[in-house]
Amino acid sequence: MVAKHPAEVFGYPLAARSAEAKAARRRYWCPFVNEKCNKQSRLVRYPMGVCSVQYGNQVIALSPRRFLQDNTVFKDIADHHFKTRDNLLLFSEVGLAGTGNFDFVMVKHKPLSSNIEDFVIIEFQTGQTTSTGKLVQALKDYLGGKDIKGKSYAFGLNMADIWKRSFTQILNKGIVLEKWGHKIYWVVQEPVYQNLLDRYNLNGMGYRKKHTTVFAIYDLRSEKGKYTLFQTRIESSTIDNLFKAFRNNPNIPAKDAFVDKLKTKLRAKMQLKLNLE
Q1: Which of 189, 195, 222, 242 would give a disulfide with 159, using CB separation of 3.0 to 4.6 Å?
Q2: What are 24-54's pLDDT values in tens digits?
Q3: Which residues of the chain have pLDDT under 70?
Q4: What is the DSSP string of 70-118?
């Protein structure tokens, strides 16, 4: 049996029994932003506080706020791009007409001045589940005092839908940033990013300073009774190479299977028609 259940609830692993962990569960608190959890589900009256899930031998983050732990991501991007943490400001949910919102914009300004020297865009992409009602049930069981460690709840990870929606965002926003000559950092967890590489046959990825679309890849590891976010690698690409991969997707479904489905529907329709006549 493959273990499938929450890994972190309101910021803490299932086994955490510290006063802080108990208080977070009682208050439905998100320790990554130090305020009440904002995830909702129509199946429960309190916040849907599953930050990450145990899925087999992997721990997959579901909430974008999970990437805010200790501001690690922002510190790493500041060091990587600006080579300093001085004179930097971070703005969230900055809109751009015709393109949508950017999760974050990190701006480097001149000392004691509003003159902008440089900026980068930062976007978060986490995992997402299917049959999420089963995950909600796991949360209810856990908060109700049941031991769910090692159990298997029948939810899934929908990697296909993640990249179906996100790849067009990567292209659309990437085109803008490539035109502007500024970088956009896509913060992704290692297993989710690996799925992107495999799904679109993206080979030979590495980091090149001239590229404006950058993937900052992180993962979670268990340390001293909690999960810690750490960077695994930084890679990049041009929009042309990403579009080529998107256009030549090796996972395009076979036409024959679709035609067979149409034939089945057609036979059922014809049979119904004959029965009615």
Answers
A1: 195
A2: 999 999 999 999 999 999 999 999 999 999 9
A3: 273-274, 276-277
A4: GGHHHHHHIIIIIS--TTEEEEEEEEETTTEEEEEEEEEE-TTS--EEE
Q: How many residues does the chain have?
A: 277
pLDDT at site 257: 85
What's the Cα-to-Cα distance from 155 to each of 138, 188, 196, rounded to whole Å? 10, 21, 21
Report the alpha-carbon distance of residue 251 to residue 91 in Å, rounded: 37
Q: Which CATH code, of 3.40.1350, 2.40.160, 3.10.450, 3.80.10, is assigned to 64-125+158-265?
A: 3.40.1350
DSSP track, 36-67 = E-----TT-SS---EEEEEETTEEEE--GGGG
DSSP structure string for 153-207: -S-EE-HHHHHHHHHHHHHHHHHHHHHHT--EEEEEEHHHHHHHHHHTT--S-B-
Report the side by side order of strands in the sheet with 226-237. 88-96, 100-109, 116-125, 184-189, 213-223, 226-237
Give Dmax (Cα) for the chain: 83
Question: For the chain, how big is the Rg over CA atoms in Å?
Answer: 22
Helix axes 239-247, 159-180, angle to 10 degrees: 150
Q: Where are the domains of the chain?
A: 1-62+129-157, 64-125+158-265
